[in-house]
Amino acid sequence: MTARFQSIAPGARLADQVADALATELRSGRLSEGDRLPTETALAEQFGVSRTVVREAVSRLKSLGLLDSRQGSGVYVRAAGVEPLRFEMPHVASREAVIQMVELRRALEAEVAALAAERRSKTDLRRIREAIKALKVAVAAGGNGADEDVRFHTAIAEAARNPFLLGTLQYLRQFLHGATRVTRANEARRADFAAQVAQEHALIVEAIDAGDAVRAREAAKAHMDNAIRRIEQADPAFWQQEGARLARPLVEDWPASR
User: Fold this and answer.
1) 218-235, pLDDT tens digit by residue?
2) Among 80, 91, 87, 85, which residue's Cα sits nearest to residue 237?
3) Which of 10, 69, 139, 159 could serve as a FRET partner for 168 with CA atoms 20 to 30 Å apart?
4) CA angle at residue 236 from 75 to 67, to 5 degrees?
5) 114 in the same domain as 238
6) What does DSSP assign to residue 4?
7) H or E element that contains 170
8) pLDDT tens-digit series, residues 28-45
9) Of all residues in the chain, what percent are helix, strand and coil, respectively (each to 5)?
10) Does pTM surpass 0.70?
C-alpha cells in the first residue's frame, strides 16, 4: 500500500474524517483488495491524530465490511464485490456530489449577485425581500425552507437581467435544487447553521440593495464557501439517513462524471 495521508483539519469528528479518507482511497483504487493498511501508529502519524481516533475509524470501516483484521498480521482491504461494500458508497459519494454542486453554484451565484447589484429594479428588490420573508416563514413553521431558498436565489438571478445565466440555472435546476435540499436539511439540524445562513442571505441582499457589485459577489461567494464548510461538518448520522436519501439523484449521476 503506497498511499500516504495528509493531516486532517479540525471540524467534524476526527474519526469520521479518517474513515472517509480511507474510504476514498478504496473507491479510487489506490487501496485495493488484499492491501494491508499501515500500522495504527503510522496512520496516526500521517493523519496527525491519536491512535484511538484511528482505531475508531478502522472499526467503523470493518463494521461496514470494507476492512478485515487478521490476527497477528494487520488490517487488510476486503475483496471488492463483498455486499457490505455498498453501504459506504452513498455516505462518501453523497457528500462529494453535493460539495461539487455547491462549487458549481459558487461560480454562478457570485456573478449573478454582482450583476443583480448593478441592474436590480425596485420591483426586483421587492421580490427578493418577499422571497426572504417566505423563507423565514417556512423555517418558523418547522420546514427546512429548501423550496423558498431556491426562490430567493431565483429572484436574484432574475434581477441580473442575463438570459444566458438564467437559462443555465434553469437547465441545472434539478441538480441545484437537489443540492439545496441537502444543504438546507443539514442546516436545519443545527441552530447555529440556520443563523449563519440567515445572516449570509442578509448580507447578499444588503449589497444588492446598495448597488455594490463587489460586495455582492463576495457575499454570495462566502455564502457558498460556508455552505461547503457546513456540509463538511455535518453529523455523520445525517449522511447515513436523510442526507444520502436526498442526495440520491445527484449520486446516481456523479460516478459517470468522475
Assistant:
1) 999 999 999 999 888 877
2) 91
3) 139
4) 15
5) yes
6) -
7) helix 163-171
8) 777 778 888 889 899 989
9) 75, 5, 25
10) no
